[in-house]
Write a structure and sequence with these properties.
It is a single chain. 53% of the residues lie in helices and 6% in strands. It is built from 16 helices and 5 strands. α3 packs parallel to α4 and α5 packs across α7. The C terminus is likely disordered.
Length: 383
């Protein structure tokens, strides 16, 4: 359906396909303003970036003394995680690479991981997910008709990283996330990655709700990692990172092969981003990736608009992917067509850890705790 009062940002290529987008008097969207703020607070370039990075690396090395590894990195076979692996070794760290095999890896992604880690001499731990259990969760998310049906996979990856770090006594998880190439993502398109309460409610309503081995974060871990602001160390925010420069390096040094699109290292991700979201919701995630590159002057706005003209990927392959996903997840053609045409649902339609935290009882408890800490703090100062 065409969007009434359509508008596109005058600076990037985000538009009113994001229902929560806003524009200033110059037509610049809120995502660009958020991006600029994050760039100023979280990205450090040149000598300042190197000085800050050196201090962090020295701390990681001290904490890793006497251990087999001093940090954890996640690897997917994609550009950002592969370049992160190279960067971490260049910094003299001893990483353990962690990969989640969720049953959807492309052959190219598997080879990219193997080639890069062999050349960099990095050990790999692969967690192979229980397919029957995971399939039921994925089916539940599609039946729930929410936008980001990759939340279960993203959550499992984060849980595996935290659990592996704890097992080896490692304090630092290094991620390939970065502001320069990954920003502008609307909450209406994707949220709840750390919130297992959200996953559990959807799985209970639309699946069998039984979980034995699925990697997950507890409510306590959600509190400590989300509410306290703890998160993996985003090393690429401390180096002069550009996607084209990184791509050329990993192809030359690590034998990396292109798989056709951002995050297309997974068959399911390719289908979800390039077919499911555009056809069902009208969301084109290329807009978020391209807008990030425009905002950091890696490409022009005109180049971004040109890249949005063709379909996200070959339409015949999209149809083939639809058939493959339906078959692998156990949906009939009729069931799958019903999923693709069902009315959208949203994060706030379901129970979640976030809702629990904002409930009256917990809210009152948090306020009481804050008041108590303020009082005790004043008492200590008085003494």
């Amino acid at each position: 359906m065409p969007i009434l009062n359509y508008q596109i940002c005058s600076r990037c290529v985000m538009d009113t396909s994001d229902p929560g987008i806003t524009f200033d008097e110059a037509g610049v969207c809120n995502h660009c303003h958020d991006h600029d703020e994050a760039l100023g607070k979280q990205v450090f370039s040149g000598e300042d970036g190197r000085r800050r990075l050196d201090q962090i690396i020295e701390r990681i090395k001290r904490e890793g003394v006497g251990k087999a590894y001093d940090c954890i990195i996640g690897v997917s076979g994609g550009v950002d995680s592969t370049y992160t692996a190279w960067q971490v070794k260049e910094l003299g760290l001893r990483p353990l690479a962690v990969h989640l095999d969720n049953g959807w890896n492309s052959e190219i992604a598997v080879k990219n991981i193997a080639n890069a880690l062999e050349r960099l001499n990095i050990d790999l731990y692969t967690h192979v997910i229980d397919w029957e259990e995971y399939r039921d969760i994925q089916r539940a998310f599609l039946l729930a008709s929410v936008a980001d049906v990759e939340i279960p996979s993203d959550h499992a990856i984060l849980a595996c990283l935290y659990q592996t770090a704890a097992k080896h006594g490692i304090k630092t998880i290094i991620s390939g996330n970065n502001i320069r190439t990954e920003s502008h993502l609307p909450p209406s398109w994707s949220q709840g990655h750390l919130d297992y309460g959200y996953i559990k409610d959807i799985h209970t309503r639309f699946g069998n709700g039984r979980v034995k081995t699925f990697p997950r974060l507890s409510f306590y871990q959600y509190l400590t990692h989300v509410r306290s602001g703890q998160k993996p160390f985003d090393v690429l925010n401390y180096v002069d990172y550009g996607r084209d420069q990184a791509l050329e390096l990993i192809q030359r040094e690590l034998g990396w092969r292109d798989y056709g699109g951002k995050h297309h290292e997974s068959v399911f991700t390719r289908w979800y981003q390039g077919c499911y979201l555009p056809r069902k919701f009208g969301f084109d995630k290329r807009r978020t990736h391209l807008s990030s590159l425009v905002s950091t002057d890696q490409i022009t706005r005109q180049q971004a608009l040109a890249e949005l003209q063709p379909p996200p990927y070959d339409e015949k392959l999209q149809d083939a992917d639809c058939a493959y996903v339906a078959k692998k997840l156990g949906f009939s053609t009729v069931e799958f067509d019903a999923i693709m045409t069902a009315a959208p649902a949203y994060f706030d339609d379901f129970h979640s850890y976030r809702k629990a935290l904002n409930s009256g009882l917990l809210k009152t408890a948090r306020q009481a705790r804050s008041a108590f800490l303020r009082l005790t703090s004043r008492d200590r100062v008085g003494v």
